[in-house]
Amino acid sequence: MSVGNELLIGKIANTNAQWLAKRATALGITVKRVTVMPDNVVETARAIRETLKRKPQFFLTTGGLGPTFDDKTLETIAKALNRKLDVNQEALRMVRMKYQMYASKTGISHVDLTKARVKMATIPEGTMPVNNPVGTAPAVRVDLEGTILFALPGVPREMEAIFEETVAPLLEEASGGAAFYEKSLFVDNIMESVLAPLIDVTMLDNSGVYVKSHPKGKENLPHIEIHLSAMGANAEDAKEKLRRAAAQLSGLILRNKGKVYPKEHRLVQSN
Amino acid sequence: MSVGNELLIGKIANTNAQWLAKRATALGITVKRVTVMPDNVVETARAIRETLKRKPQFFLTTGGLGPTFDDKTLETIAKALNRKLDVNQEALRMVRMKYQMYASKTGISHVDLTKARVKMATIPEGTMPVNNPVGTAPAVRVDLEGTILFALPGVPREMEAIFEETVAPLLEEASGGAAFYEKSLFVDNIMESVLAPLIDVTMLDNSGVYVKSHPKGKENLPHIEIHLSAMGANAEDAKEKLRRAAAQLSGLILRNKGKVYPKEHRLVQSN
Fold it and tell me: Which residues from chain A sit within 8 angstroms of residue B155, using beta carbons?
């Protein structure tokens, strides 16, 4: 769940969700849904409760942990869980240390723990602050029945550093060594509507392999990326599944007068 | 709602949602939520029903209208609404015309309406096909109690063309001339935690203006974008609201020894 009005007015693309989806998938985890919500406590608390009802093994939020008024994600999580917000002593120690480092670096004698700074250490009761290796606001971990929730910051470099240090090892362990591999074929000279039944056959014959065509040209000047992906019990399993499916599909396309390229190439107009 | 496994494995960023959010906002519409779902009929039908329960005035889906097996959005909408899927004669006429144009352009005497092609004209009962000015698969409009749903294709240029031709005029009429304006200030020499209470004051004094700080540097080497936005009854109203809020906030920042730039500039290290 990505929290932030800037996403809902189209100011920025949701690159945090893309980054997390890619990393989680690479670690063998299936991402079931992404939700983008506004900086609005009532609406977003409702969406958090809806999400928890579906009992995902992991639930990550990004955004809304900073010092400003509209950084409301922890207030929102507290509301969704019917918990109080409280200054957490461990979180306060983390925030204080960051400002002491800043003060000593810049030669300032002292940086006050103002209200806005204490806010970053004010987290829902019964939750754990998580070290932020590159920024000030700690992340937060909440262990619920069947779900581990992490509230991560919205600044990409902070979100990514916390993910790698704290979240990724848990995901990897949970996936039990499952591996995700992908492969693209680029195809000319065949319309997507001719390709469709060939993909269907390949998917039916290769269980566990997902094949999707992404038209890049136009229907009548076709240049299509065919993306094959497989989640396997381990890396060898996933790679072998992919190899077999790609070989079968390439054969079918060639027999239908299509041209197949294993890597990207320029679009060539041809009939 | 963006439908497609490629979004949930992080293969691509959700630029369709960003584009639609930006355009809808510019037309005076408030975007309440973005959801990304997999090419899975059961899970996505459930998410469609959840969305319809919230009675949004408009509900747009992107993706899953093409000819392949995994283009399942219309099947999913039919399931969510408990309706049958049926070949729609008007949609079939649209698809046939596209292939006839293709055939005459390329000198092919005839293009068959194969199963995969008829699929693009197979839409839920009681819904309307919508002209696709640049691609083959028609979009679909569904009028429900309190909600108008549009199923748009996932190919960006097709989605955008259909939006502009058919959806945008409806959104503009619904917003009744409301106008959204935005403005950014770039600020140096002030930490986000010092800025936070100044933003709070500005937001309290300027109802209808939303102010959000986006840290671009680090907390201890601050370079911050402050984004102000306002939805007004009309363009003049929104602009005047923004002007007043930006003037107040700039004044507060200058009094706190911050540097304000109305446009982006290079990050200058300073204390």
Answer: 215
